[in-house]
Each structure stands twice: as structure tokens, then as C-alpha cells.
Amino acid sequence: xxxxxxxxxxxxFFGSNQLGNLGEExxxxxxxxLLVYGTGSIRQNGIYERVMEExxxxxxxxxxxxxxxxxxxxxxxxxxxxxxxxxxINFVLAVGGGSVIDCAKAIAAAACYDNDPxxxxxxxxxxxxxxxxxxxxxxSATGSEMNRNAVIxxxxxxxxxxxxxxxxxxxxxxxxxxxxxxxxxxxxxxxTADIMSHCIxxxxxxxxxxxxxxxxTESLMKTCIHYGPLAMQEPENYDARANLMWASTLxxxxxxxxxxxxxxxxxxxxxxxxxxxxxxxxVGLAIITPHWMEYVLxxxxxxxxxxxxxxVWGLVVQDxxxxxxxxxxNKTREFFFDKLEIADSLRKENIEADDQLLxxxxxxxxxxxxxxxxxxxxxxxxxxxxxxCI
Length: 390
Ligand code: NZQ
Ligand code: ZN
What we know:
This protein is of the alpha/beta class. It has helices spanning about 20-25, 40-45, 45-55, 75-85, 100-110, 120, 185-205, 210-235, 240-250, 265-275, 280-295, 300-310, 320-340, 355-365, 380-390, and strands spanning about 10-15, 30-35, 60-65, 90-95, 135, 150-155, 160-165, 170-175. Strands 1-8-5-4-2-3 form a six-stranded parallel β-sheet, sandwiched between helices. The protein has a two-stranded antiparallel sheet with strand order 6-7. A hairpin with a 4-residue loop joins strand 6 (about 150-155) and strand 7.
């Protein structure tokens, strides 16, 4: 295990009726805030009214920025920055899933700088300050509610890029599993696949002796396997929604990767696909993951694959370890495509791409260097994986 520093300043309010903490919590920071939300779900499920009621009861002035789309665009960040400047806002509240929270984080940073916010994503400028951000989570998937990441698309250039800075960690997040009751079957599956993928990305690492991280990760994967399909069948099953929500937060708040480095190749490949085609992030990950697993399975990674097969899927290790590893990969496939009912190819999601486009995508994906840790992937490797996903 490598040395590490671990500091997550996000205060979590978890469970039923935790929204009652919102007004008091926000007013610790500001009485003049930007409220960021998506394209309509919080108006349909009543969360919008409840949030406004809470904020107004504390005399908090609210400027609204609704309409944030999934795979949020840099244009929304620019619009949010302009509002913050115009209204002298000093706190950003996100109510939604990962897209809304990521957008709120990017706005919070953009508001503190004069440059164009896309510069952060092109790595021309590092974010060292941001307005405080709080969140009310409505979809279990990304972990954005307790982490330092924000992923933003630029539809004009076809890019989708992350920033990762400690100042972006929310100061608080309200996690009421009931707020995710209205999440569709499709988005529940996508969210579960995203949590599972965050676990896989961190599990398949190159470091030795990461026993505690690996066992924690296995337990979160088992949580996805157990509760993901259940939440699809019973959307208002509190235990299913609660376990998925806490799993989403724990899977990407830095705990699983303390003392080790994640692989993250699958995510970097997926971000290009969702940038170009607006695919749900978790669906793209589910399609890529089994192909990536097959591609990186080797003598170097076999021990990890065997641990995965036996500890996560309960498989008995056979004489031929590679046969067991492949069985583990097949279990992963079965989970994503049968249990979560996700399409098993991009074509089934109406995504077509010829060889030339796949080559161009692969080139863009490695623009900041080769991907991965458990196996280093260059442009040709990425092309091969993309080709299998089509
Ligand atoms: O537009 P709204 O009204 O918000 O509707 C959303 C959207 O249509 C809907 N939804 C959310 N909560 C709902 C609901 N519908 C009914 N009831 C509710 N309670 O679901 C749709 C998808 O929402 P979105 O926020 O896009 O989903 P998710 O949470 O999966 O976020 C995906 C985004 O996060 C990025 C992804 O790349 C993608 O852009 N990621 C962020 C990460 C991070 N910050 O750490 C890490 C991830 O790996 C990921 O890259
Ligand atoms: Zn993800």
C-alpha cells in the first residue's frame, strides 16, 4: 500500500426527511445562492417545491439555473458563471444527479476566475479556488456528492473532460434515498453500472498488498449486484435505494483508492462516447467493461481476476486460472446485460461509427497520454476495444 492523505470535508445527511437540514446548512455559508437543477425531474417529483420552501423559510435569496442536461455542457457553466457574477452569488446548490452536481462545481470554480472555464478542462489553468457547493442528490451513480471531480462536455468540439480538485468537494450533501424513487428503470441500471464500474476501475490496480481496499471494494460490488436489479423491480424499496445511494457515495469518495491508483481506462474511453452521442454514462461503461477486461487479462493481472471471480462471484478457482477469470468476466456480462437489462453493444443504442471515426476517437482519447494502469493502453489498443464495443 502506498502512503496517502485522505480528507473529505463533505458533511453527509443520510436518510429520510433530511431535507429539513437544508436551510440551516446553506445559511452557514450564504443567504444569496445559485440553485442549479436539471431538465424537469425535480419539478415532477415535488423535490423542487420542498427545496424552495426550505430555502425561503431561511430568507435565502435564490437565483435559478435550471435545464442542465445530462452530460452537462460548458455553455451551462458559462451561463452559471455569468449569473454568479451578476447577482454577487457566493454559494452554489445542486439538486439532481451527477450532471447537475458536476455543473454546479464547475460554475463554482468559474465564478472565481476571469478566464473561460473550458481552460480548466484543457489543463491550461488549475482550479485553486471555488465558491462552496452543496448538493441534494436525486440519483445514485457518480459519487459527485462527496468527491473532487466534475466532468463537463463541450458539444462544439466533441470533447468531455474532467477536472479533479479538492476545492470542488461539496461542503454538504443531503442523501435521501426516497428522492431516487422516481429514477427510471433505465437510469437505475445505468447508475448501478456506474457504481460497479467505479469499483472495478479501482479494484484492478497494479499495487500489491491493498487487502483492505480490495475487500471494501468487493463489498460495494456485491451491494450493486444484490440491490441494483431489486431497485429496478421495486423502485420504492427503501433498502435497495438506500444501499445503492450509500454505495455510490463510498465508491468514489477516495476511500477505495487511498494508497493505490485506479486504472480508469474504461472511463476515459466512455467519456468520448457520451460526449459524441449523449449516451447515459453508465450504459457506455457496461458495454465497454467486459471487452476491456478481456483485453487486459494477462499473467500480470490474473491474480486480481481470480480474486474478483471468487470473492465477488463466488466461483471456484479451476486448474486453468484463465478459465476461471473468463468465467468472472462472463458473470460481469450477465449482470450488466441480463440482470440490469443494458444493451450489450453501442449499435443497440443506435450508435454507428466507421473505422475512420473509431480511429479519430481513439486518437482523441489518448490526447493527454496512454491510458490505464493494470495494462497501459495506447491509441491502437483503444481502437481495438472501441471496435469490439460497436
Ligand atoms: O435532467 P434531470 O431532471 O436532472 O433528469 C435526470 C436525467 O434525465 C434524471 N434524474 C435524476 N434524478 C432523478 C431523475 N429522474 C427521475 N427521478 C430522479 N430522482 O436522470 C437522468 C440522468 O441524470 P444524470 O445527472 O445525467 O445522471 P448521473 O448521476 O449518472 O450523472 C452522469 C454524469 O456524471 C458524470 C458522467 O460522465 C455524466 O456526465 N460523472 C461524474 C463523476 C464525478 N463527478 O465523480 C464520475 C462519473 O464517473 C461520471 O463520469
Ligand atoms: Zn463513472
